[in-house]
């Protein structure tokens, strides 16, 4: 198959060729960036919480003074533990996908402006919270009784803490984090262990890379560790246990206010938190399907128009010995050339669109491997779209050449 006659034919239909090429270019730019956005959102939705979600719920109360924290904690813990089916109740400051209360910047020395390591979530938990969460220790040791200290304002001073694997790899790449020190303003911390996973309260706000930058801090009840209770029950009993726990708050501590919205199972918190991301994924998939559909229809329409215009020319070629396969390959090659031109332009548009998204929405750079994937999709779409008209062209009989136009 010679390319020069095909190019000559395309030059005689510059406007139609340009329109289809521009349509393919736009589809390429949208396809690459939309697929990248879908992948980013999906990766966030799949964030590993690190906790035993199916067996955990959280119950939050507020409306009490800091001086009442010890009394409220004592009454709530005693009352909640008496609920049938309740396996454990402990205090915690925040849970994955719930309200964020402990985000702060950390550094490698007391001067936080010189060696910043990033902003992390501090999760405070009383004795037993580590086990109730179901965290998996991968290095170092678990908290011991003497590791639990009272929180001074934000967190305990000179605390022995556990960090997530993601934070350890970010802060000390290629090194063991055990024994490493870091600071949060004037608070000093030393790493005693590493957990496999522990998600932040709001992972979407920090992106997939920093979604698990967390520090588990053993803390004694009281002060900033009050009012948020981690409930554990068997997955089958958990909805009933949480419902009875919510109902029991009015009797256990009538002087506090139950936070209805944030007193849910961890599974429900995850579903609510990522609801907008799932909607966005559905919208982006709809955009992708629509754009590809419009592009395919454009190719089909143009190819069908050209087949109708060239029926006598096709008949002449058939009369001169061209086979059906020759005619079929002609139209497929012609479509391949148009789509290729559109893809080359579309790759430039894809980077331009990604640059705009990076500037206005702080998205990461589009990985290069999305471009060949987009090209393969559009090449395949173009060949499928042109197949019907090409088969009709190949079926034109040689006798057409003898008819008058």
From TrEMBL:
Pfam families the record matches: FtsX, MacB_PCD
Domain MacB-like periplasmic core: residue ranges: 80-196
Sorted UniProt keywords: Cell membrane, Membrane, Transmembrane, Transmembrane helix
TM regions (residue ranges): 283-307, 336-357, 369-387
Top-rank taxon: Bacteria
Domain ABC3 transporter permease C-terminal: 287-396
Membrane topology per record: Multi-pass membrane protein
Family named by the database record: Belongs to the ABC-4 integral membrane protein family.
Protein name: ABC transporter permease
């Amino acid at each position: 198959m010679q390319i020069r006659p095909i190019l000559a034919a395309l030059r005689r239909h510059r406007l139609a060729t340009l329109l289809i090429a521009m349509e393919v270019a736009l589809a390429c730019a949208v396809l690459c960036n939309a697929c990248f956005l879908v992948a980013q959102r999906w990766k966030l939705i799949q964030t590993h919480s690190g906790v035993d979600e199916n067996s955990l719920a959280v119950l939050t109360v507020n409306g009490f003074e800091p001086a009442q924290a010890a009394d409220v904690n004592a009454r709530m813990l005693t009352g909640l533990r008496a609920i049938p089916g309740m396996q454990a109740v402990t205090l915690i400051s925040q849970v994955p996908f719930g309200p964020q209360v402990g985000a702060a910047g950390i550094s490698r020395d007391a001067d936080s402006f010189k060696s910043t390591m990033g902003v992390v979530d501090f999760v405070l938990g009383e004795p037993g919270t580590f086990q109730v969460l179901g965290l998996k220790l991968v290095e170092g040791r678990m908290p011991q009784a003497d590791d639990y200290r009272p929180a001074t304002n934000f967190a305990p001073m000179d605390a022995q803490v556990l960090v997530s694997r993601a934070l350890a790899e970010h802060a000390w790449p290629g090194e063991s984090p055990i024994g490493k020190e870091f600071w949060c303003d004037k608070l000093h911390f030393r790493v005693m262990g590493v957990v496999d996973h522990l998600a932040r309260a709001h992972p979407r706000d920090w992106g997939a890379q920093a979604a698990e930058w967390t520090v588990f801090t053993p803390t004694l009840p009281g002060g900033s560790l009050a009012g948020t209770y981690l409930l554990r029950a068997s997955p089958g009993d958990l909805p009933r246990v949480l419902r009875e726990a919510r109902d029991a708050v009015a009797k256990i501590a009538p002087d506090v206010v139950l936070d209805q919205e944030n007193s849910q199972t961890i599974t429900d918190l995850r579903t609510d938190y990522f609801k907008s991301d799932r909607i966005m994924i559905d919208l982006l998939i709809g955009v992708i399907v629509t754009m590809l559909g419009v592009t395919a229809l454009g190719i089909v329409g143009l190819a069908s128009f050209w087949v109708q215009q060239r029926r006598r020319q096709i008949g002449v070629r058939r009369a001169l010995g061209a086979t059906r396969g020759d005619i079929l390959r002609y139209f497929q090659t012609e479509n391949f050339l148009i789509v290729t031109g559109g893809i080359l332009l579309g790759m430039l548009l894809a980077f331009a669109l990604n640059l705009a998204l990076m500037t206005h929405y702080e998205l990461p750079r589009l990985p290069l491997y999305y471009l060949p994937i987009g090209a393969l999709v559009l090449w395949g779409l173009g060949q499928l779209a042109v197949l019907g008209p090409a088969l009709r062209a190949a079926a034109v009989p040689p006798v057409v050449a003898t008819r008058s136009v």
